[in-house]
Amino acid sequence: MKLKIFVIVLALVFVAAACNKNQPTNENTQDNNDQTQVEMPPATSSTMPTPDEPNTPETIVNFDTSATISMNANGFEPSTITIKKGSTVTFVNNDKKNHWPASAPHPIHTDYPAFDPRQAIAASASWSFTFDQAGTWKFHDHLNPSFFGSVTVEY
Ligand SMILES: [Cu+2]
Questions:
Q1: Same domain, 40 and 71
Q2: Which of 4, 7, 36, 111 is deepest in the core (most CB within 10 A)?
Q3: From the CA of 143, how far away is ligand 1's center (Å)?
Q4: Strand ranges inside the chain, DSSP E
Q5: The whole model's pTM is what?
Q6: CA of 61 to the centre of ligand 1 (A)
Q7: Total domain count for the chain?
Q8: Highest averaged pLDDT of the listed ranges 24-33, 55-64, 125-134
Q9: Domain with 100 in it: what CATH number?
Q10: How far is the centre of ligand 1, averaged over its atoms, from the C-alpha of 94 (Å)?
Q11: Co-location of 127 and 76 in the same domain
Q12: Could you list the residue range(s) of the whole structural domain that residue 102 is in?
């Protein structure tokens, strides 16, 4: 009988020891959490391709070009153009009269408010505007709205 009691006591000691071992095991779990945090940088590195994606549009923006639209007695020439986003269009007044290129609609120019020199362009003078918003922007001559055209801005 004493042996059985001794064995039971031993068993209890082992159980207690096992419980003590569980605490270090919990610490190991915390270590595993640390390892999980260490695994975060690889997750961040897997996010690396995402910064590469914005680089693609940036590269397209670097296709920055310029275009010229002549303003003469017959209107705009060319009256319709397509450009890359970020391109600059120069409106050159080749007429003897003033001209005033501006965004639709006349007379408030609210489609693309910045697309408006807010003053007439004198003969032989010019006005440049950089289109940084994609879309098709209709424009007209504010001094002669029967002259009109459009600028299509692509990404
Ligand atoms: Cu107008």
A1: no
A2: 111
A3: 7
A4: 66-72, 75-77, 80-84, 88-93, 101-103, 126-130, 135-141, 144-154
A5: 0.60
A6: 29
A7: 2
A8: 125-134
A9: 2.60.40.420
A10: 20
A11: yes
A12: 63-154
